[in-house]
Amino acid sequence: MPLPHDALVLVADGRKMLFFRNHGDENQIDLRTEAHGARRDRKDREIKTDAPGTAKQSFGYGRSTYEEADFQQQEEDRWIKDAADELKSRVLRGDFDALAIVAPPKALGVLKKCLHKEVARRIVSTINKEMSGRPVPDIEALLESETAAGDLPTA
Fold it and tell me: Does the pLDDT of residue 155 top 70, yes or no?
């Protein structure tokens, strides 16, 4: 489906969140940056509070430790959930009618689970690709190629 004029585009991963607005039309995408944010990377020692837990063996000597949580992944997931919250607040105040999302697989999966039903209704395109570090013309070219591919008749 083509990206309409004034559509919102979210390009996100676990570290960056970029919001663009399409100032072009369905034939020529012209993205303009509307908002952006970047998560500050924190060291594991700043995130976790304790050592991994242990459990006493039911037989023999010693203790086994539980697998330690991936704190960096938890931080990235929280960041993506913040993007979903931002989309929810925007849609509830009538900020957009069409939405395109560009995100890597893991981030896209987390984002889709957290989306409000009104946000999900307005999605015209989701692209499973890491693009948050790419220049705007590359993002525009990706969106044009993906939306053009969606217009092809199916046999």
Answer: no
